[in-house]
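Supplementary Text 2. Reproducibility record for the structural model of the 127-residue chain.

All settings were left at their defaults, and a single model was retained for analysis rather than an ensemble. We include the record here because the model underlies the residue-level annotations in Supplementary Table 4.
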Amino acid sequence: MSHPTTYAVRLTDEITRQLGQLADRLSQLPPPQAAQVIARVLDPDSGVLGGVTHLVATGSVFAKDQAERGALPPEVWLALGRASNELHNIVLDLDEHQDSLQLAGTTPATTGAKPPAPAPLVARRHR
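Retained model, structure tokens:
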């Protein structure tokens, strides 16, 4: 006998589908609108990334409980805990750039004005 799909599983599938749609549309948006979407996605309090981080942290708590009961290997809990910590650090790193993204999303496209000069891309980590 098959198990009926639970609401949480259906919700997970729907969110995954919608994230795919969002990514597809993001690539087609004009730069100011794309910046607005990215800023909202990366918002640490109410954005997608903050929500995913919270979800992984909640999963880590669940996995710890299950590992303590012997239902899951401890490595599962450790991996989820590491993922949660890394996502939290990423959220903090990206939060530093929230103002720039919001500004880029509200700056009207100017015609005739000198376009901004491209900046050289240099990989730097601030930790």
